[in-house]
Fold this sequence. Notes:
Helices cover 46% and strands 17% of the residues. It is of the alpha/beta class. The structure holds phosphoenolpyruvate and magnesium ion. The site of phosphoenolpyruvate (PEP) has 10 residues, from strand 27 and helix 30.
Amino acid sequence: MSRTKYVYLFEEGQADMKSLLGGKGANLAEMTRIGLPVPPGFTITTEACKEYYRLGKEFPPNMMEDALLALRVVEEKTGKSFGDKDNPLLVSVRSGAPISMPGMMDTILNLGLNDVTVEGLASLTGDERFALDCYRRFIQMFCNVVLGIDHAVFDAVMEKYKKRHGLIFDYEIPADGLRSVIAEYKGLVVKEAGREFPQDVYEQLQMAIKAVFESWNNQRAIVYRKLNKIPDDLGTAVNVQAMAFGNMGSDSGTGVAFTRNPSTGERELYGEFLVNAQGEDVVAGIRTPTPISKLKDELPQVYEQFTQVCQTLESHYRDMQDIEFTVEKGKLYMLQTRSGKRTAAAAIKVAVDMVREGLITREEALLRVDANQINQLLHRQIDSKAELNVIAKGLPASPGAASGKVVFDADEAEKLGNEGERVILVRSETTPDDIHGIVKAQGVLTSRGGMTSHAAVVARGMGKPCVCGCEAIKIDPDGHEFTVGDMVVKKGDIISIDGATGNVILGEVPMIEPTLSEEFETLLKWADDVRRIGVRANADTPEDAAKAREFGAEGIGLCRTEHMFMAQDRLPIVQEMILADTEEARKKALAKLLPMQRGDFYGILKAMAGLPVTIRLLDPPLHEFLPGAEELLTEIAEMNARGQNNAVLAEKRSLLKKVYALREFNPMLGHRGCRLGITYPEIYRMQARAIFEAVVKLKKEGIEVLPEVEIPLVMDSGELALLKHEVLEVYEEVKAETGIEFEFTVGTMIELPRACVVAEEIAAEADFFSFGTNDLTQTTLGFSRDDAEGKFIPIYLEKKLLKDNPFAVLDRKGVGSLMVMAIEKGRSVNSGLLIGICGEHGGEPSSVEFCHQIGLDYVSCSPYRVPVARLAAAQAAVLYPRE
Ligand code: PEP
Ligand code: MG
């Protein structure tokens, strides 16, 4: 039987082996392969990690043996030897999953140091202080990651020493001081972990590999995977690599850089560098680093070499890279490269620029931008004309602006966020453990850390505003307030942050709507060229319609006329109509509504001149327009108590009676949709008349309009036939009255399972179908759309009974199958049947992809999601070409 290969030297791998070697391992191999300066090392595969779990947390047979053979090769390459007292090899042990999970899993540096090798390192480098500093860092990191001892325990020792000796910075602690710190550390290990710090370097290595495997299942990694929909069974690889030392003096250092600006996409080297430091100092955001341009002044040759390496990597990978590197005594070492996380704005600019630079094709550019992410570009910014009470300025780490109550704790941010409060999470620095709080916060503000710190990376990924490294704010350790100079900002006070400028502002600020960049427009034009499916908007007002057009909507796929009934000046008349006891009385109220509705339709059709507008006749249960019974009961009781007994009381009483009469146990399955039109044809007739009279007026003005009259909640062709007949009758009346003829269509929402099953009968009566997937989801799954999301869907998601919330992401298997059935049956009798979707799913990228695949003519979504749908539709067309 062939032996499974669990260990690959960097020379043996390449970039396309990510699932086996993890992203970091595959790219280290690739960089080695193309001749970049990478310290030698090897990768233990994700298969080994999976096997480790399968075996009940045991290393698979031969894995360690092979790792030690690979270690021998690294020893040969470096001329050093692991555990050697004179010339010790030190290694880093790092995690690396197939899909990047920045900061979520563990890393250990300087492994291989013990009481003996530390002396060897000291004499080898001629720098005792350096060797001791490495050792104390190693003990701290190892004990934290492997033995689970809190960092703070060790930090306190350092702080105590500095205080006692009047020092400010760690690097001021002399060698002797470090020796006493190390001695104290070792005592702490025994006290906290009940065992000695391991002196056997091979034991250290085994324990570290085990710890990295286990970090795959630490809490923050699990949360991150859930949030990013990363499967739990991928496992992490482990990279063991010879150390390069960034902490060997002023000609050494460590940095993180992006080949382009990850916030704006600008083509410029962008990053940060810390002189005389090790990698974790930058990534953890503990010290605020200097911009990479400083490297140009300090180590010009290294900078020159580094810029060349960046260019090589960009053209090799044909994408913006996020790079970690170390300089050891003036020599550059590459420690990582990966495709860089970027804001939506940067993603668009980089993609469009790379097409223009000839690096990628338009199709590739379309796929480079996450359609979900571009939502953030369509979000609000602070109005530049506003007077701002700027109290501090930090680094502009993730664009967008947000206001909210100050909270200092991730758990509290999560709790308040869940209760619907808007909060800004304020932390000295965030750690990956804060991720659940960041998810629920409007934005993040930190007092320390750089643009590549955890807070910044995570917030950018989520499209949340973030200001970091705002050193002017001092957070009190109890987490009740922060101060800026003399000013005190307490927990619960409102602040605003601007992630584009770094401003921290006291109080709420006015925001403005975003505009689209030239590159964004270009990308969307390319999207329009390739997409096969139309994009319309759901809009109920001329303003929304105009906004939708601006965002590229090709018509209105759903105008919900009930929203027009809710307006303050309409409601009393609508109530009069509902309360009418006779048809006569109802017609009187409807006559008052007619001119108003006509005006509504005139406005909206005009705003969409030349484009189709689907106008849906009244849909919701009538009691939605009436006051609640409890409210009325209280009012009546109060009037009674006051001894009031007049016409107003009588009116309230009759209103209450009507409210009771209209009350339903399941209003969503009750007297709504076309059932209203069937019981009160005069309502639908009034609406049809209003539409047609508006059309006539616009025709007279020479404006081209394409109205589509839509009947909701149809379950049988008979309903549609009956109501279509009413609509056509009204058309004939209006035509006779005005002498003007015009084109229009009559169609139906498909939002009940029965409608899908009998779609061929319904199609015989319909010019178009529009899937109302909100109701279709509700009725197919039997999940109330009003309650399910708040009550049990989160638990279903938690227990993985559902992959996604079916009201957000279309349930392809259930709802989707019904749609496919309806399309096939519908088109079998009416090949020209126009079919769209107007449920919430119409603006959700994976649902749009499905709509493309099943051959819909268009999707319709809220105006702000129109660009998202345009891009998602184009991506679907690139991935799944159809005739
Ligand atoms: C739907 O049910 O999907 C739909 C678009 O209609 P509404 O949300 O108004 O019920
Ligand atoms: Mg509906």
